[in-house]
Each structure stands twice: as structure tokens, then as C-alpha cells.
């Protein structure tokens, strides 16, 4: 016996069943061979109907085990390799035969007569025992089968099940680990950015391999960093958590001869900041009294200016005047005009003023001025 445990099995042949040895482990991966000879296609059908498939040689230990346990047959045994589109392929997995896994006999494969597309294994042969030979698929040989220990759920759906002589092993997919690939790599939990939002998907578990998070910022802010992050197979995120920065507006200036008062809900002179303007006494505001910092980084209106104004007009415009002001002004003006008219009438009643120049007389009488003769304009004496 080999260093491994063995268990009883059966040999299916034309005359019924007989005992044989097969390797056993926690899940016994057993070998089976037929006594009946058949071509390669029939041999595979026989294995698939009764076991799993034609044997797939995984490593040298497996070959050594087969050499010890399988009896000599002068026709040798078909195994699960065939040439498909000029490539030697494991038919059970449909994977190409890797160069490091080749175990050809001396001078093989030689493709004799260009029709040798199937593979046999020499068991207990004097020369090249345990090695392979390409041969014509129609030839009749014994079928060498196996029963797999790998089941659909053997590796938790996150790895490839690899048959071994007494058991199976799991070659885990990226981001998974454990004997049955039952564990998933974790990444540090991410937090929602301030003034923003985060939406994540977790195909294998919260903040684990394959998790993907997308970030957004609220109105009036902009994202500093990457919009998405992915949890990788080694427990690292593809990028750092982003931050949301409040959009800034250029600080406005207070008007000359005026003042400015601002409020800042989020940050100084940033989105939603509001500034209110006022002018000192004797000036008036030209422009909007209030401006707001918008999400685009611009103020809703430019800063106003304070202009000098007429006091009377300003008082009337703003309602800061006495209701008696206008009537009194009208009365005073009327009396001044009346006094002037009385004074002028008295002067006219004094009679006429005579001015003699070279015999010509300019007579001023009442409201009538008469000019006689052709004299120059009179002069005042």
C-alpha cells in the first residue's frame, strides 16, 4: 500500500463486478477502470454514466498512485485528454494542457499517420511507465475513470475545486480565503462625507471585497476626491474618502459712505451667505440693498453705492418732513410778492418824472411811457 489510506471499490466489466483498490480520504476520490475494451468516445461515455469522467491527471503523486494500484493491461488505458482544434485539452474542464503538466513518453506525441488525437497512459510498462502516448481514438482500450470529491458547493462558490488523491483543495477566487473559500476580505468602513451622500453596493458582505461606493455632494458644494471607491482583494480601497467643500464667493466691499452686514450659515462668504447694505445720513442707496452668494460662486447682485442727495428731496422722498412745511412756504412767498407790488404802486402814484435833454421831454405818467421827438435815450439826472 502507498502512504495513503485505501478503500474498497469495484471494477465494472462484461462479467460483472470484481474488487479493486481506490484511494480514500475525507471525501473519497476513487479510481475505476473497465475490463471491457472500447474506443475513446465509448470510454468517456462509460465513465460519465457510472462515475464522473475519464481520469484527469493532476500531478506526479497521482501518477505514482495509479502505477501502484491499477493492474497492467497490455492495451493500456484511455485518459481524459484529447486534441481539440489542434490543442491538447483536458475534456473534463475544457482547459488547454499546460506545458508544465505534460507527461509524454519518449518521442511523443508523434501524431502517427496524422490521426492520433486521443491519449492513453502506460501502466506498469517496462519503458515509459506512467507516461502518455497519443493514439488513434478508434482503438480499443480500457477506460480509466474517477469519481470526484468536488461538489458544486465544495468551495462556497468562490473558488475552483482541485481534486487530490484523498480529498480536494480549493483555489480561491480573488478576495476570498479559507479551506472552502468561505471567508471574504474586509475593507475599512467608509463614512458619508459632511454635506454629501454615499451609496454603496455589497455583493459579498458589508464593506468587503467587491463593495463599491459612490459619493455625491449637496447643492452649493463641490467634491474633492474620487466619485467612486472599490474594495480590492487585499482589503484596500481604490481611493480615499472624498470631502465636500462649500463653494466660495468673492467677498464684497462695503460702499463708501455706507456699511455692510453679512451672515454666513456655512462658511465665510460662501454658498447661502447674505450681505445687507445701508447708507449714512445725507446719502441714498443706488442698487440692491441685499445680495446672496449662489451655488455658482456668484452674488445675486453687485454691491450698491451711496450717493449724496438733496436734503429737502430726500426728506420728501423718505417721508421725513413736517406736513405744515409746504403751506407755510407758500404763504411766505405770497406775502413777499404782495409787498413788492404795493411798493411799486406807491412809486407810480408820485406823478411824473421830467428829464430834459436838448429840448426833448420823456414823460413817465401812470402806466404809460410816451416818447416824443427823435432824441437820444434820456439819461438820469
3D architecture notes:
The protein is an alpha+beta fold. Among the domains are: 6-147, Roll (Mannose-Binding Protein A, Chain A); 196-246, Complement Module, domain 1; 258-318, Complement Module, domain 1 (Ribbon). It is built from 4 helices and 27 strands. The longest helix is centred in the last third of the chain and has 25 residues, at 325-349.
Summary keywords:
381 residues, alpha+beta, Mannose-Binding Protein A, Chain A, Complement Module, domain 1, 8-stranded mixed sheet, 3-stranded antiparallel sheet, 4 helices, 27 strands, 33% strand, disordered N terminus, EGF-like domain
CATH fold call of the domain at 6-147: Mannose-Binding Protein A, Chain A
Q: Could you estimate the helical fraction of the residues in percent?
A: 10-25%
The number of distinct helices, counting runs of at least 4 residues, comes to 4
The CATH architecture category of the domain at 6-147 equals Roll
Number of strands: 27
Identify the overall geometry: rod-shaped
What is the CATH C level class of the domain at 6-147, in words? Alpha Beta
Q: State the end-to-end distance.
A: 167 Å
Low-confidence stretches: 1-28, 351-375
Q: Can you identify the CATH superfamily of the domain at 6-147?
A: Mannose-Binding Protein A, subunit A
What share of the residues does DSSP label as strand, in percent? 25-35%
Domain EGF-like: 146-182
GO molecular function: calcium ion binding; oligosaccharide binding; protease binding
Protein name: L-selectin
Domain C-type lectin: 26-146
Amino acid at each position: 500500500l502507498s502512504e495513503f489510506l485505501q478503500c474498497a471499490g469495484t471494477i465494472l466489466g462484461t462479467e460483472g463486478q470484481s474488487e479493486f483498490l481506490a484511494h480514500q480520504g475525507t471525501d473519497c476520490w476513487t479510481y475505476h477502470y473497465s475490463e471491457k475494451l472500447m474506443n475513446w468516445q465509448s470510454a468517456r461515455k462509460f465513465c460519465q454514466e457510472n462515475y464522473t469522467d475519464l481520469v484527469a491527471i493532476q500531478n506526479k503523486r497521482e501518477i505514482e498512485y495509479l502505477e501502484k494500484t491499477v493492474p497492467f493491461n497490455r492495451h493500456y488505458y484511455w485518459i481524459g485528454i484529447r486534441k481539440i482544434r489542434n490543442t491538447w485539452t483536458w475534456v473534463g474542464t475544457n482547459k488547454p494542457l499546460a506545458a508544465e503538466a505534460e507527461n509524454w513518453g519518449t518521442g511523443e506525441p508523434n501524431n502517427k499517420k496524422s490521426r492520433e488525437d486521443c491519449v492513453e497512459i502506460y501502466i506498469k510498462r517496462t519503458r515509459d511507465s506512467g507516461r502518455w502516448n497519443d493514439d488513434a481514438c478508434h482503438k480499443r482500450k480500457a477506460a480509466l475513470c474517477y469519481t470526484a470529491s468536488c461538489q458544486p458547493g465544495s468551495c462556497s462558490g468562490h473558488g475552483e475545486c482541485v481534486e487530490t488523491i484523498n480529498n480536494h483543495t480549493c483555489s480561491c477566487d480573488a478576495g476570498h480565503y479559507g479551506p472552502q473559500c468561505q471567508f471574504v476580505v474586509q475593507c475599512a468602513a467608509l463614512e458619508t462625507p459632511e454635506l454629501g451622500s454615499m451609496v454603496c453596493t455589497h455583493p459579498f458582505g458589508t464593506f468587503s471585497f467587491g463593495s463599491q461606493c459612490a459619493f455625491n455632494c449637496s447643492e452649493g458644494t463641490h467634491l474633492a476626491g474620487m466619485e467612486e471607491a472599490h474594495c480590492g482583494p487585499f482589503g484596500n480601497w481604490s481611493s480615499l474618502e472624498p470631502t465636500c467643500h462649500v463653494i466660495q464667493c468673492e467677498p464684497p466691499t462695503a460702499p463708501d459712505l455706507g456699511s455692510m452686514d453679512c451672515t454666513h450659515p456655512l462658511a465665510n462668504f460662501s454658498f447661502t451667505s447674505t450681505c445687507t447694505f445701508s447708507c449714512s445720513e445725507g446719502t441714498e442707496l443706488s442698487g440692491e440693498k441685499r445680495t446672496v452668494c449662489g451655488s455658482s460662486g456668484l452674488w445675486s447682485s453687485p454691491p450698491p453705492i451711496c450717493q449724496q442727495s438733496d436734503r429737502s428731496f430726500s426728506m420728501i422722498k423718505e417721508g421725513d418732513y413736517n406736513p405744515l412745511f409746504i403751506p407755510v412756504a407758500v404763504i411766505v412767498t405770497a406775502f413777499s410778492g404782495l409787498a413788492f407790488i404795493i411798493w411799486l404802486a406807491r412809486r407810480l402814484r408820485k406823478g411824473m418824472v421830467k428829464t430834459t435833454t436838448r429840448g426833448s421831454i420823456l414823460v413817465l405818467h401812470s402806466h404809460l411811457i410816451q416818447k416824443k421827438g427823435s432824441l437820444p435815450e434820456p439819461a438820469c439826472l
